[in-house]
Amino acid sequence: xxxxxxxxxxxxxxxxxxxxxxxxxxxxxxxxxxxxxxxxxxxxxxxxxxxxxxxxxxxxxxxxxxxxxxxxxxxxxxxxxxxxxxxxxxxxxxxxxxxxxxxxxxxxxxxxxxxxxxxxxxxxxxxxxxxxxxxxxxxxxxxxxxxxxxxxxxxxxxxxxxxxxxxxxxxxxxxxxxxxxxxxxxxxxxxxxxxxxxxxxxxxxxxxxxxxxxxxxxxxxxxxxxxxxxxxxxxxxxxxxxxxxxxxxxxxxxxxxxxxxxxxxxxxxxxxxxxxxxxxxxxxxxxxxxxxxxxxxxxx
Length: 300
Hints:
By secondary structure, this protein is mostly helical. The protein has one domain: ADP-ribosylation/Crystallin J1 (ADP-ribosylglycohydrolase fold). The chain is built from 15 helices and no strands. The longest helix is centred in the N-terminal third of the chain and has 22 residues. The two termini are 19 Å apart. 53% of the residues are buried. GO terms for molecular function: hydrolase activity; metal ion binding. InterPro entries: ADP-ribosyl_diN_reduct_hydro, ADP-ribosylglycohydrolase, Ribosyl_crysJ1, Ribosyl_crysJ1_sf. This is ADP-ribosyl-[dinitrogen reductase] hydrolase. Its cofactor is Mg(2+). It holds the Pfam family ADP_ribosyl_GH.
């Protein structure tokens, strides 16, 4: 069993998880769609939040990974509980702002909600992307202390845009990893949870690591697990992950959320925090505190 932390520690780790997600997004976005070799020739090892890339981002600017997570968080906090329609409405409002980046599957699902009111996209064998997994964190914070509730919320938020067994499984496992890390579980305990996913869905097996970091949810999760379980610090986990290239903003964001929950605020390098957009960081700190306050673990 994990060593249970007091409420202050859990709140601090919840903040670190959400900030870690944004930091990973901002670190990885400038090298999205590059190969590991292209990153090496341009940056050596990318260790700084530099901006640029195909989206021409400002240093510290976040993308759809963080923005969609903020949508989920705002909807839960505004409702004072779970609101699937509220989340879909937030996604629709976000899409209307013409965001800097949005995945095709996410766009299609949100458009279906806007045009037809559909809250669960039909199963599609091609929708095993990482767009639902990347925005899992608010659901994980809100459901801390209740695994059944986690599973329900994970799948509901996912299926607005992604309805695929591999996406579903990844969302639930990432939520469970965050729960374990928030409660002070060991790396070995988290590894057992990752291995359970691979046992149930052998596609996710990440040893030996194949080095693929595409937007396919299996490649994404394998990359995150490989570098999270090899890394010995928040920075090491994140640097390893984003330097694989591919869908580096999303692998960075997902690794950042798990590593943030595991290593806590003191683990996140100050030099990275200083590069982040102030307004985003302030909102994340506020929302993470409100989400965790709504969770069964802190309401008891």
